[in-house]
Request: fold
Amino acid sequence: MTWQRETFKKIKQIPREEHVLPGTALCAGCGGLEALRLAAKVLGDEVVYVNAAGCFTMLAAYPFTPFKGSWLYTTMGSAPAGAQGVRDALDVLIAKGRLPERENLKVVVLGGDGSTYDMALSSTSGAITRKLDFYYFCYDNEAYGNTGMQLSPATPYGARTSTSPCSLQHPSGTTQEKKDIFEIWRAHKPPYIATVAPRYPLDLEEKFARAATFTGPKLFLALSACPTGWLYDPGETPGVAKLAVETGLWPLKESINGVVTHTYIPKRKPVEEYLKLQGRFRHLFEPTRQDEAIRHIQERVDAYWKQVKNAEKAV
Ligand SMILES: Cc1ncc(C[n+]2csc(CCOP(=O)(O)OP(=O)(O)O)c2C)c(N)n1
Ligand code: SF4
Reply:
């Protein structure tokens, strides 16, 4: 099935107005910040961001903030619970007539993969089960970034992190496979889930526009190329982020009421092209090439896309 964009067909349709202003304390070349900047173009300013501890906490170092809207800081495990409190307070104020409906706000959780895939999973599960009307924006840099790039459940096979170094026992870095949080969310039956990547801005904006039509939990998993943790020059972020999608490692897809559609089918370059650009995978190529590990990564991607093709044939 070919996915059609309805709202964002051309780049010039993306609003020019910025809602995440420049001058944050985040690293130069932060792919997560680029994704948030684009997301905010659809979300607008009528937002309360509920931010789990992580890199994005640096977005609001009192008294400075790049947001025109509001921001609340929570612990790593409790941003969805914080979002529930904010949503409930808004609903009560509106119901009592103390806040006009036109001043209603969107509630948006900001969480890294450490929170999203790991520490906040139980409060997320509770919030989805309670059908909380909120957005969850996960910027996935595939590690616990803010505290020095420790292994997270989102870290992919073969990556070296500060707690999964390559060693004689583990020459290919981590042997864990990235947790499939998209499917964990889908099992909870929320109305909307999407993966996005900032190098595909029309795809990203369209998904935020679609999500706005649903009441209930809405997840966005944003590829967040991270020069500091993935060990490449900040100027390389666009190339790295694009190759994540073009190799098929970061599929662009959405789930509407459980029905999954891939929104972009890449021609699929070899994964090696993506891996080679990043220091976190350098041990797979130097001092000796680890063919088995590279083949393993390629085979996992091939198997994923084969299953996508089979599923689409079956429709
Ligand atoms: C329960 C708990 N353990 C540890 C920490 C310390 N801590 C603060 S930020 C952070 C890393 C968060 O990782 P992630 O959610 O992936 O976001 P990122 O830092 O990559 O943006 C950690 C471990 C904490 N705040 N709370
Ligand atoms: S460590 Fe990575 S995710 Fe965190 S601010 Fe820097 S570039 Fe962004």
